[in-house]
């Protein structure tokens, strides 16, 4: 018997009403969760995505991955047998496998620090090929120590700074890397871990910073770039959320903001920027939703700090926001149907970055994947930034890293080095492109609120 999408949606909503995720447990269990891969073009699947009790892991060329309880999955598979199948049958097993290595590695490094000091742990910091550091994931405290040591070890190239505090009083940090003495030098910006569970993005930022300082004087391309430009790296945009993925819930996405009149915590920082904020697309008004966009644009401390820091360091001629997963290179806009003013240039850049990377990456407009409002890479290219950017328009991209499933956010350690190395090629290409031909601002009728995607 054929069932209408509305009937199917009603069944899902009734079932979901009895399901409440625990946001306060000491250690979140995922033993009752599965991940389904579904046809993203199915209207009934879109209704499933709207439930607060499900978690859309990723949208990519192979489909749509949704984490949900087994109870909801049974209903989905019963009503949509041709549109969905089980991708991960037990999420908890994947989490335990990933955590076992990560936590044991951090315990071992903590013991080294106690016995020998940080310098012993990072003694190979001038060898970017060292496997002691770049083949493991690291917690917030270790990453902060690593960047401090990087700057201390290369004082003529790297500068460590804090750009603000989070609600839980953790530092948001940035590292500046350059050999240029030109006060008006162009800059390239990179950020990672805006979504707490996307650990591989943090590894990417560390490797790029390491690659730059190690390459100066040893690699001609890198040496030339650092003589001409400055690289700005914000390695952990979401410190509180990232810390929470180590202490409580590995698959936590949002920050840890307290939402008034709700037991559910957190705001999706990548839906909180002033770029089509709250105007539809894959955003949520539900505080319990994974894509909850906050009470207003830029309501979150982390977003406020990024905005202030970004505009303080103009001119920025390129910006990349690293995420996982799906192996995609996305260009503006996520919230508007109309192409960006620099669409042809961005398409060329995105296609070449995809070609430079060794895995199967696809370049496309963000909105062609799915509508998303309030995202960072759209704000980097917004009128607010361009008007303050000393006559330049940033080449702005979101890069979704490996894989395409089934690991998703739980990418194994043996995939870290291949991922960070392939990103290096794209970063160098983009830096050279904007150094040689930065996008100069010109009069445009484009505005930040045209062709908004409405629900």
From TrEMBL:
It holds the Pfam family Peptidase_M14. PANTHER family: PROTEASE FAMILY M14 CARBOXYPEPTIDASE A,B, SLL0236 PROTEIN. Residues 1-21 form the signal peptide. Keywords: Carboxypeptidase, Hydrolase, Metal-binding, Metalloprotease, Protease, Signal, Zinc. This is Peptidase M14 domain-containing protein. The active site is at 400 (proton donor/acceptor). InterPro entries: Peptidase_M14. It comes from Amphimedon queenslandica (Sponge). Its cofactor is Zn(2+). GO terms for biological process: proteolysis. Coiled coil: none annotated. GO terms for molecular function: metallocarboxypeptidase activity; zinc ion binding. Belongs to the peptidase M14 family. GO terms for cellular component: extracellular space. CDD domains: M14_CP_A-B_like (cd03860). It comes from the Eukaryota. Residues 136-434 form the Peptidase M14 domain.
